[in-house]
Amino acid sequence: KDYETMMAESAEKRKADSQSLAEKESQKADTEAELQAQTEGKTAAGRELSATLEYIASLHAECDWLIQYYDVRKEARTGEIDSIVKARAILSGADYALVQTKAQASSAGAREAAARAAFHVQPLRPADSSS
């Protein structure tokens, strides 16, 4: 009788152990799948971070260039604006040769010379009024 009881208990224990093993294997499979998904997510996030850092670095380089050449660009724009204003005035009939004062002539002359040198522009000759 003890033998039969022991065999029955052993059968129940084996059944419980089999169920426990199956549950644990299922949990392990779920955990491994979750781990793989998390690993793939981390890899994708790492790639995205790398791309973002590269983009930020390119923006930083562009901004550094803009800051470095700000004064040069500002001077060029000022020269362009001055040239456009003078061109409009000349086209409207103004004679700039007689209007400039001595202080303006030195700074404006330097700016015009720099602009001519940069753009290889020949100075305008005043129209001959004796014709």
Question: Mind sketching the topology for me?
Answer:
Elements: H1 2-68, H2 70-92, H3 96-99, H4 102-119
Please provide a written account of the structure:
This protein is mainly alpha-helical. Helix content is 85%, strand content 0%. It is built from four helices and no strands. The longest helix is centred in the first third of the chain and has 67 residues, at 2-68. It is rod-shaped, with a radius of gyration of 42 Å.
Principal-axis shape: rod-shaped
Radius of gyration: 42 Å
- Distance between the first and last residues' Cα: 142 Å
Assign the structural class, choosing from mainly alpha, mainly beta, alpha/beta, alpha+beta, or little secondary structure: mainly alpha
What composes the largest sheet? none
List low-confidence stretches: 121-131
The assembly state of the depicted protein chains is single chain
The percent range for strand residues is: under 5%
Strand elements, count: 0
Helix content: over 70%
Which short descriptors sum up this protein?
disordered C terminus, 4 helices, 85% helix, mainly alpha, 131 residues
Summarize the structure.
With 131 residues, the protein is mostly helical.
